[in-house]
Design goal:
Helices cover 44% and strands 22% of the residues. It is α/β, with parallel strands linked by helices. β9 and β10 form a beta hairpin. The structure holds S-adenosylmethionine. The site of S-adenosylmethionine (SAM) has 18 residues, from α8 and β5.
Length: 309
């Protein structure tokens, strides 16, 4: 059967005209069409099947439900038939009731979304949200970053370095573990990150020329340094004038097992100590705050310290 004949056959029934008119406003699920039209589920499904077969209607699945909508992108005769059907449906006696019921169903749908968001207000960050993650937020924030030269000291395998390299001019990742550096190098190569360079070295005396980087990052690395003040002084040395240091570390804690479990040399740092050390190294505009607190024992808290050369 030709496409034209299929469309004509699909629209030869007043119930199908009603359905087309309802789908003009928004996509609808079978249960919603049932509620609006007061027709049985199987009848509606059969009508939708015929409309879909003729290319007048499209569907998409969302969980257990299937939503139907008009194929408004269809050009040619299909598009013309849809417009004709919408006009014709306005003359049907059921039209006023259908439109009132449609309005009610759509209003309730909107309310349900609002009820959900009202319910989770105040604990939004602790509730699962499809597609929402700190990783995605990280990528979003990266877009704001200018093309900096970054030194990531005590970089580990380069979790942060890799993320930064997607946006920064160059990232130099320094670590004193030969194995970690080899692993990081291979991973960066595999991921095609040519501007990410791993170097073996000590964060207290990083193998980076003086006054060459815009940003130094010490992420959960300073508490591994033998002499943390030396690491901060070294960071000052490799920064260009106006460059910035960012330290993410643990707030001073009394979880003694951190040494045995994670190889930590220092039990985090007090905000006041970090402030003094940064000042003594010559940094200005020092800002320190606690940016995260774990809910599980031993309730580690993360401190973020930033300053300018
Ligand atoms: C806890 S990991 C942090 C890794 C990474 N910065 C992050 O935030 O995911 C600490 C890293 O510092 C490295 N490290 C420890 N002492 C160091 C030192 N003196 N110089 C350079 N790297 C060091 C370790 O090899 C390890 O990879």
């Amino acid at each position: 059967m030709s496409a034209t004949l299929k469309s004509l056959r699909a629209l030869s029934d007043p119930t199908r005209l009603r359905i087309v008119a309802l789908l003009e406003r928004d996509e609808l699920a079978v249960a919603e069409l049932q509620e609006i039209t007061r027709l049985g589920q199987s009848r509606i499904s059969t009508h939708l099947g015929l409309l879909q077969d003729a290319g007048l209607v499209q569907s998409r699945r969302e969980g257990k439900r299937t939503f139907y909508k008009l194929n408004l992108q269809a050009g040619g005769s299909v598009g013309e038939f849809i417009q004709l059907a919408i006009r014709g449906a306005k003359e049907l006696p059921e039209q006023p009731h259908d439109q009132i019921n449609l309005k009610r169903v759509l209003a309730r749908r909107k309310e349900q979304a609002q009820v959900y968001f009202n319910q989770i207000a105040g604990r939004f960050d602790r509730v699962y949200g499809p597609g929402r993650s700190w990783q995605a937020f990280g990528h979003l924030l990266l877009r704001i970053l200018p093309p900096l030269v970054v030194a990531d000291l005590g970089a580990g395998e380069g979790l942060l370095s890799e993320l930064l390299a997607r946006r920064c001019k160059k990232v130099i990742a320094v670590d004193n573990s030969e194995k970690i550096v080899e692993f990081g190098k291979a991973k960066a190569k595999k991921n095609g990150l040519k501007n990410l360079e791993f170097r073996l070295g000590n964060l207290q005396n990083p193998p980076i020329e003086a006054s060459t980087v815009d940003l130094v990052i010490l992420s959960q690395a300073l508490h591994h340094a033998e002499v943390p003040t030396e690491a901060i002084t070294a960071a000052h040395k490799i920064l260009k004038p106006g460059g910035q240091i960012l330290i993410l570390d643990l707030l001073k804690h009394n979880f003694e097992k951190a040494h045995e479990l994670y190889g930590d040399r220092w039990p985090g740092f007090a905000e006041s100590d970090l402030h003094r050390w940064l000042e003594a190294a010559g940094f200005k505009k020092i800002e320190i705050s606690i940016v995260a607190a774990e809910e599980q024992p031993p309730h580690f808290q993360t401190i973020l310290a930033g300053a300018k050369k």
